[in-house]
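Lab notebook, page 48
Experiment: co-folding of the full assembly
Goal: obtain a model of how the components sit together before planning crosslinking
Operator: M.T.
Materials (sequences as entered):
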Amino acid sequence: MATLIHTLPFLVDGLLTTLLVSACVIVLSLIIGLPLGCVLAFGPLWARAPIRLYADFVRGVPILVLLYFVYYGLPAIKVNLPSLLSAIVALTAFKSAQIIEITRGSFQSIPSGQTEAAKAIGLSLFDRFIHVLAPQAVRRFLPPFVNSVVDTVKGSSLVSLLGIVDLMLSLQQVIGRTHVALPLYLIGALMYFAINFPLSALSRRLEKRFV
Amino acid sequence: MAKTDARASAETPVIAIEGLTKSFGAHQVLKGVDLRVGRGEVVAIIGPSGSGKTTLLRCINFLEEYDGGSIRIDGTEVGYRDGSGARRRRSDRELAAIRVDAAMVFQQFNLFPHLTAAQNIMLGLMKSRGRSKAEARAIAEKWLARVGLAAKVDALPSQMSGGQQQRVGIARAVAMEPKVLLLDEITSALDPELVGEVLAVVQELAAEGRTMILVTHEMAFAQEVADRVVFTDQGRIVIDAPPAKVFGEQPHERLRSFLSRFVGFRPNPA
Amino acid sequence: MANYHFNFAIVWRYAGKLFEGLLLSLELAAASIAIGMAIGLVLALISLDGPKWARPLIAAYVEFVRNVPLLLLVYLVFYGIPSAIDLQYDAITSFVATLSIYSGAYLVEVMRAGLEAVPRGLIEAGKSIGLTPMKVLWHVRLPTAMRIALPSLSNTYVSLFKDTSIASAIAVPELAYGMRWIETQTFRTVEVYLLATPIYLITSYAILLLLRLAERRYSVAR
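Observation: model returned without errors.
Model output:
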């Protein structure tokens, strides 16, 4: 028991790295994914095609393969990124594809009657977007987005395979030293659960409220 | 084809449609439609489904682009700028300005679900009529009271019955003070017991002398409220005459078979 | 990029390794999905029709598994459990068990939504022609629920196929493991990824396409 308490600060350090990676990935993916998702919903074909291709490509490949690709593959063509940056780049590539899809879906699931009613009272394209489409899209966007934050935190555990000392790898290291495997894995699981469960619950509440 | 009412051609018509054609792919929905609606006139469009009546209405608000012919509201061509020969689609800004002249009430209400009843009405007033928030609010409250929903000013659409939602839909449209009000089967999505409250509102607006075009399946209502009844079939206007004439003599074979489907409706030539 | 010299010949020699890896990935996914579907279906039925006390237990299982990384569950089952109790199993068995438990938690939700969406009238119609509750379940509720759930199931299945790549973390020689292995043998990194990535892509979309065809064929006209 004493050893477990001893290792706690070490695990918390790992947890902070997990949170840092997740937060970077989420913010960057929103910056990339929201505008591209809007283009995919409203843009002309020549702009939609490359975005569609990117999103479908990235979502057809396991995250782990994307991670390996950025970390081991890119150096072969002289792009050397430190491991933490590689991890963030790879996870962002995946997450932004998801944000693109969620954004597109949020707009396209709004019935066409909404746009028609807005046109009928003479709203311009800009006003239709700001006052009619965007507020409704946000409500549709939030539940799957919060869910996808949970997936990001879970998926960030894969960065341990690149040697980044996140919660997952710090668990492995503590277990390597103490040989107390099962209790430590359970503690780790509870730490992930403590972050993700409130988010999952929030997502469900948003869904009930908005749909 | 019956001749257009003399009254409509006397002055500049509010709506003047000439030779309107529209196709969806290979299927031609409108095959050259002519229709004039004078100020203060109420025109009911009836006809079998697929006869093009809803498409006609939607073209007037340019929710559908039309292929040929012209639609003028008070002399202004709706969707296109007819310059030197070639038709050019109007810019979004121009369209927005023209669309407010013809406000539409929809079959599925299409209220904005994130806005209250008052906000639904205020949005167009503020953004396209340039009213201040206070003015818009006052107008919204006035109209909601007129349609009997003074108590629902701050209710969300999800907190209202279908009939109440549709009355907000009507208020949203008339509050814009359009030159013509377009009503697209506005009672079709309602439970039978809610139809009456909505039609009562329309009747009152008609009595005020507002110009209206309504597509409807309520034959008795069309007969009662309309100055003219237009019967469309297979993309053309087959009959355009006062209700007494349309429902009285039943001069046309297709109209007779169409009307025979409305069980319980007995045309009463006034 | 410009001065990279491609050499597919070396990598090609190991292509068999990738193919074996793909087969194993598909087997892992198929086995886990089969077991996961059984778990999901049974628990969905219990949480809908079963005793009230079972519901919080099922919810606890679903919530725990869905909010913890798959990688951690994989380690927990492969390293954690054998360290605490006297139970031995190989990496493949361990991974299939983990992915089954993991997929079960997702499939419970999908199947419950599907079962709940079966129109009441259909069940009543089944009863009125004299079917027992068991027969109503088997001939009316399940087939209808499956058809309703198919679109969600398709997405879940493809995700689970991609998740098999995590088995490489405990040295199960599936596709991602094969990919890394060839890379360390040949150092022909770019070629390996140019070969392996399309394999994942094509397989993912092939699975999706097959399920979409099934959806079209069996879709409920609603």
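Interpretation: Chain B has ten helices and twelve strands.
Next step: discuss with group before ordering constructs.
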